[in-house]
């Protein structure tokens, strides 16, 4: 009868044999996946190790792509693809095919890091989920990109500045009309770009409320796509030109449905704030018309490059914002 020691040794030997068989099968599958032919002469173990690590490293991108396909994004966003040169081998995260070449093998989304072929880019759904790792600044960043990256309803700059203004500035004369010291406004901008939500804009840091209003206006002006987006712009201008009050309100409601969700939320929050500013007109001397003159060109920009068109639209931009402020309670 075999001893206990010999039994344990035999069991351990069988386990090692089974492990070797599993590794051999994995190597065969890996070779097939890479399109390699392996003969009877087995390559050394050192040949397989880097290939295994490389193949496994690609699983994360494929799993991420599958997750994107299965989940419905909170806010639809187009990918911001740019031509990219990848170091080392890469697979397309859309079609899962190899990306050939030494330079400019494909495109990479600068907001979420998705890597795809150039020809696959138009086929990728609008499911960009920005990552904070790829967001380098707050100002001049696409509005939808920013709110998706921080998982908020509105940009932090809008929320924080409006809260600060309403806490200590609603009765300040010439609110939004008077400009703050430009160097201080630039300092606030740099703080948001660097520290994000940790930026200190309290009265202790900036006693002059006009610096905070200036920082908010600068943020809105520097958006690559205005709060009232280029796609919706013509419908808002058409609505402003209508003379019948009921038809005008209905036209504005229809125009608002064309805005991305994050833009609508931002516009709604801003208009409610400006309405509260007008309710303190006795102190700040700012009515809806005055505010519309300031915020018209800030919230709206013509998609046309023609200077005459832009000039002619200025009065309609003012009328749009004035109507949104006055009818904020029924339009949103």
TrEMBL record:
Gene3D superfamilies named in the record: 3.30.60.20, Rho GTPase activation protein
Main location class: membrane
Record protein name field: Beta-chimaerin
PROSITE patterns on file: RHOGAP, ZF_DAG_PE_1, ZF_DAG_PE_2
Organism of provenance: Neogobius melanostomus (round goby)
Domain of life: Eukaryota
Keywords: GTPase activation, Membrane, Metal-binding, Zinc, Zinc-finger
Residue ranges of the region described as Disordered: 1-22
Classification of source organism: Eukaryota, Metazoa, Chordata, Craniata, Vertebrata
Domain Phorbol-ester/DAG-type stretches: 78-128
Residues annotated as domain Rho-GAP: 141-332
This protein's GO CC annotations: membrane
GO biological process assignments: signal transduction
UniProt xrefs under InterPro entries: C1-like_sf, DAG/PE-bd, PKC_DAG/PE, Rho-type_GAP, Rho_GTPase_activation_prot, RhoGAP_dom
């Amino acid at each position: 009868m075999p001893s206990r020691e010999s039994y344990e040794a035999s069991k351990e030997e069988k386990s090692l044999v089974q492990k070797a068989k599993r590794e051999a099968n994995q190597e065969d599958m890996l070779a097939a996946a890479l399109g390699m032919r392996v003969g009877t002469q087995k390559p050394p173990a050192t040949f397989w190790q880097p290939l295994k690590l490389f193949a496994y490293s690609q699983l994360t991108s494929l799993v991420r792509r599958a997750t994107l396909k299965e989940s419905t994004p909170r806010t639809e966003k187009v990918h911001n693809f740019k031509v990219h040169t990848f170091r080392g081998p890469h697979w397309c995260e859309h079609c899962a095919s190899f990306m050939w070449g030494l330079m400019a093998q494909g495109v990479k989304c600068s907001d979420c890091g998705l890597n795809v072929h150039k020809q696959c880019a138009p086929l990728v759904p609008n499911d960009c989920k920005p990552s904070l790792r790829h967001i380098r600044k707050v100002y001049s960043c696409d509005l939808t990109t920013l709110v998706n990256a921080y998982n908020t309803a509105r940009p932090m700059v809008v929320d924080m500045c409006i809260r600060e203004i309403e806490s200590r500035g609603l009765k300040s004369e010439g609110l939004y009309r008077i400009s703050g010291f430009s160097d201080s406004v630039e300092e606030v901008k740099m703080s948001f770009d660097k520290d994000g939500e940790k930026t200190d804009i309290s009265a202790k840091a900036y006693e002059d409320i006009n610096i905070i209003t200036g920082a908010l206006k600068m943020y809105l002006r520097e958006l690559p796509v205005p709060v009232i987006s280029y796609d919706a712009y013509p419908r808002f201008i058409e609505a402003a030109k209508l003379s019948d009050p009921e038809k005008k309100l209905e036209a504005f409601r229809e125009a608002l449905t064309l805005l991305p969700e994050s833009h609508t939320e931002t516009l709604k929050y801003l208009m409610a704030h400006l309405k509260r500013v007008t309710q303190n007109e006795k102190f700040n001397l700012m009515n809806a018309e005055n505010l519309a003159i300031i915020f018209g060109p800030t919230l709206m920009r013509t998609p046309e490059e023609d200077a005459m068109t832009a000039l002619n639209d200025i009065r309609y931009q003012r009328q749009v914002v004035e109507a949104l402020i006055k009818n904020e309670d029924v339009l949103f």
